[in-house]
Amino acid sequence: MQLTDEEWEFIGRYVPIGEYGPYPERLRQQFEGVIWRFKTSGQWREMPQDFGAWSTVHNRFRQWRDAGVFEALLEGLIAEAAKRGEVDLSLVTIDSTTARAHHDASGMHLGQDVLTALEKARSNGPIPKNETGRKPKQTPSGRSDDAPGADADFA
Predict the structure, then answer these.
(1) Do 58 and 44 touch, CB atoms closer than 8 A?
(2) What separation in angstroms does the CA of 56 have from each of 31, 60, 65?
(3) What is the reported pTM?
């Protein structure tokens, strides 16, 4: 998790010192603590004391996040790589994955009668569609307008 001097020289330009601290020599240590946290997926409380108090590193991370330090650092890294001709766009991906969640996951609360109706509708299978791809309109008699003989009542 240790940064080289060259890496820190680049990163240090993006990390603000702040009016009341931290001491500049502790910034590198705290930044390395943030790297440790995300590289290991460990809990903040499990952070080794080598990086300082976990709560201090966590608070510093939140301050940097809110100040946009990581976005600026990423843009700076991309600009530096482009200047060197080392940008490889084959590594860029866009993920448009979506996942449906149960209605309870969103905090939506439905009455038992609505849940029963939804379950019944789901168990009856898909609703048939006409040639246009739309659901057939239901008439008051319960018959579909698209059903054969639907106009027979009016003939």
Answers:
(1) yes
(2) 11, 6, 14
(3) 0.54
